[in-house]
Amino acid sequence: MGIEPILFYSFATVLLVSASAVITVRNPVRAALFLVLTFFASAALWLLLEAEFLAVALVLVYVGAVMVLFLFVVMMLDINLARLREGFIKFLPVGLLIAVVMVAVLVLVVGPEQFGLAKFAEPARHNADYSNSRELGLILYTVYVYPFEIAAVILLVAIVAAIALTLRHRPTTKYQNSTEQIAVQRNQRLRIVEMPSEERK
Question: Which of 12, 28, 105, 194 has the fewest CB atoms inside 10 Å of its own CB, making it the most exposed?
């Protein structure tokens, strides 16, 4: 047995343990940090599957941006931990039921029969100069170019709508006027004070 199965089972174990800790720990900050560890373990598994682009995108987008935002929001909010514990026990049966349904759906959709891995055949190896980023770009901008452009337009409309909904002009809010800042004169910012020099004895 080579090193790849050992790495796979190691990262898969870390992934399962950290994902379980995300929903079981009481502290929200620790839960967010465990989620970061889950993303890193998932990125390592994608590297083993020769999906370098997805692994790098997961680390840069989710760990580098989304999780920083999550940690900032969690640390800035005043969260009542006692109330969270009460809600966890209250909704535990519903959560377990949803988890069982999700596992069943994953088994049906991502089963070995769906991908031809019933006999655990080893996937085909690529050459050293193979780039899945290039292959993904070719497929994305040729076969799926119209769905990609439609998704981009939808995201643009969502961004504009979010800005329009949250944009409120309040009379008490102070705004910067770049035109007035550039047109300012020297005597409006600088004041020269003449002081007599001191003589040392």
Answer: 194
